[in-house]
């Protein structure tokens, strides 16, 4: 018996496990070295097993009583953990209050009663015959009232009530067949009595007030005529009372005590609220508190980490004036001189190769630009980048001229004339193909931190040889959990990404071979010679033995470890075919 059981178990075959991704063959695998993302499911699983998470182990009783207090289950009442073992709670849960209601017929039973049998109907009719109303007017027959009539009364020949006299139809009553004069005459016959009883007068009819004064005249007009204005100007006067009009034009009179109280307690528009105005005797322009001395630096100086002595707080006007002076000198040099060298020689009249403050002041006066001595020193300090107290040719071309729009002027000069003016490194070609020269560019940056600002992300692994992060400690959990193996059977409520799912690019742009169930990693997988030869022979490419060996050797030399895959072997074949086509 035991052997039969063992033999039957050996023949039992479990359902195969689906080891491939659910997107297998539907996308182009662009990263074969990464684990694919997705879910590994086994055949035979039902939807209920996937949706239902595994049952959690039961918590100890000491923990459950605290959970019922702070985190009760859905549909359960919150119970304080101190009353968890109170027997009264169990009694209260099982206790019912009130009286049990006696059950009556439901609405459905009354609306749709069960059909009665003929015996039940005859029995009910027999009981109904006892009532007098059933005897006089049984169901389905007319009510016979001749029982109450006197003897010998002829019911068929006797009528009751008053006979209705036919006068006319409703249409004749509403629209009588009479002329307008006849209808008007009938209306005026009873009009006097109606006017007297109801005190009703027609539109435009004078009201008869029955005055008994002797000198009263009925048709005489009394009162003052109402003023009329076609533009409607008198309507506002009619709707607005006279005392309101006067109060708007005149000053409002209020109690001084009330006005002083409002001034002390309520803020007034356009005035400072001062509750102690009467008690504190100070002038109107008096200010309270201590005058705080402003800092010599601004928020911008702190943000740019400027050193003391280079703060720009309060220097906006000075910097604007210097920029206007430089712009004026640039325009004057551009319109009056052909090149930069001619302009520099105009400033340097002594031909010493440098411009001092005296030369700069004389040139500004000749250009109708008088400058104060303080501004002249600031302009010289701005243009003097090497801090030697003078402005050389390079500084003059960069800060007081448009050097890109004017030629340098050294094409026609000899080397002897160039020595006191420029050095060898001062002139650079305008472009690699140009033979013209121009002064090199000087950069003048207020804050060095702005020009040299570099983020950590631009330094770390930005270029070859940058700071490596290989030995850096990593924090947090990676988005794609390639550090743990994917579960054999994955549930739907598991939202982790194990690297076996396709990306958005793979879903939008699937490979051509995905319809045949072939992935990109199949082309890049190293293979043996015989296997590779059989694959190409299966698609109709037959290669001779020696030729195949040469191709295999060429493809293996292109890989550091000597591996050959379908893609590398196909690349060698394509190169040979292209070379043969060029020779042909």
Q: List low-confidence stretches.
A: 1-12
Helix content: 25-40%
The amount of beta strand, in percent, is under 5%
Structural class based on helices, strands and sheet pairing: mainly alpha
Largest sheet: 2 strands, antiparallel
| Number of E-type strands | 2
Main sheet: strand order:
1-2
Q: Radius of gyration from the CA trace?
A: 57 Å
| Number of helical stretches of at least 4 residues | 27
Q: Tell me the distance between the termini.
A: 80 Å
Descriptive overview:
By secondary structure, the protein is mainly alpha-helical. Helices cover 39% and strands 1% of the residues. It contains 27 helices and two strands. The chain has helices spanning 2-10, 47-51, 61-70, 87-94, 107-111, 118-128, 132-136, 170-174, 180-189, 191-198, 234-239, 242-249, 256-265, 299-303, 316-336, 340-347, 357-366, 373-383, 393-399, 415-418, 448-451, 456-459, 504-508, 520-524, 529-538, 545-557, 566-583; strands spanning 427-429, 437-439. The protein has a two-stranded antiparallel sheet with strand order 1-2. The longest helix has 21 residues, at 316-336. Residues 1-12 have low confidence and may be disordered.
């Amino acid at each position: 018996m035991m052997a039969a059981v063992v033999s039957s178990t050996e023949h039992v075959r479990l359902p195969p496990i689906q080891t491939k991704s659910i997107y297998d063959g539907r996308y182009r695998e662009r990263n074969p070295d990464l684990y694919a993302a997705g879910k590994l499911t086994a055949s035979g699983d039902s939807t209920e097993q996937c949706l239902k998470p595994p049952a959690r182990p039961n918590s100890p009783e000491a923990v459950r009583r605290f959970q019922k207090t702070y985190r009760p289950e859905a549909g359960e009442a919150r119970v304080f953990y101190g009353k968890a073992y109170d027997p009264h709670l169990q009694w209260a849960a099982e206790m019912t209050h009130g009286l049990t209601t006696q059950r009556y017929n439901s609405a459905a039973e009354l609306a749709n009663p069960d059909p009665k049998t003929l015996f039940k109907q005859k029995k009910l009719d027999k009981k109904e015959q006892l009532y007098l109303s059933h005897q006089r007017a049984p169901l389905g027959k007319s009510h016979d009232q001749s029982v109450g009539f006197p003897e010998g009364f002829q019911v068929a020949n006797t009528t009751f009530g008053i006979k209705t006299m036919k006068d006319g139809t409703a249409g004749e009553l509403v629209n009588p067949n009479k002329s307008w004069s006849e209808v008007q005459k009938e209306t005026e016959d009873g009009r006097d009595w109606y006017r007297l009883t109801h005190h009703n007068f027609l539109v435009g009819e004078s009201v008869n007030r029955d005055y008994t004064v002797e000198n009263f005249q009925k048709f005489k007009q009394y009162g003052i005529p109402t003023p009329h204005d076609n533009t409607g100007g008198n309507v506002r006067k009619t709707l607005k009372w006279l005392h309101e009009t006067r109060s708007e034009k005149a000053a409002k009179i209020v109690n001084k005590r009330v006005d002083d109280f409002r001034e002390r307690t309520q803020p007034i528009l356009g005035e400072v609220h001062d509750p102690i105005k009467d008690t504190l005797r100070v002038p109107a322009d008096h200010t309270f508190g201590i005058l705080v001395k402003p800092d010599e630096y601004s928020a911008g100086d702190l943000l740019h980490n400027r050193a003391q002595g280079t703060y720009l707080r309060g220097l906006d006007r000075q910097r604007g004036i210097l920029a206007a002076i430089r712009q004026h000198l640039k325009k004057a040099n551009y319109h009056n001189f052909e090149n930069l060298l001619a302009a520099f020689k105009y400033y340097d009249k002594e031909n010493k190769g440098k411009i001092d403050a005296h030369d700069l002041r004389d040139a500004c006066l000749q250009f109708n630009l008088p400058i104060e001595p303080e501004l002249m020193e600031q302009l010289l300090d701005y243009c003097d980048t090497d801090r030697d107290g003078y402005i050389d040719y390079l500084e003059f071309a960069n800060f007081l001229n448009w050097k890109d729009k004017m030629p340098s002027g050294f094409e026609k000069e000899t080397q002897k004339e160039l020595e006191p003016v420029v050095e060898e490194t001062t002139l650079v070609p305008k472009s690699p193909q140009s033979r013209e020269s121009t002064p090199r560019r000087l950069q003048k940056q207020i804050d060095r931190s702005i020009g040299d600002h570099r983020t950590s992300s631009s330094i770390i692994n930005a270029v070859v040889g940058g700071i490596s992060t290989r030995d850096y400690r990593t924090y947090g959990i990676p988005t794609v959990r390639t550090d743990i193996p994917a579960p054999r059977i994955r549930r739907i409520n598991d939202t982790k990404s194990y690297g076996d799912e396709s990306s958005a690019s793979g879903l939008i742009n699937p490979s051509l071979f995905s319809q045949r169930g072939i992935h990109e990693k199949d082309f890049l997988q190293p293979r043996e010679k015989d296997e590779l030869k059989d694959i190409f022979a299966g698609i109709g490419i037959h290669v001779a033995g020696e030729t195949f060996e040469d191709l295999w050797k060429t493809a293996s030399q292109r890989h550091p470890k000597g591996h050959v895959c379908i893609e590398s072997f196909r690349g060698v074949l394509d190169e040979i075919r292209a070379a043969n086509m060029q020779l042909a």
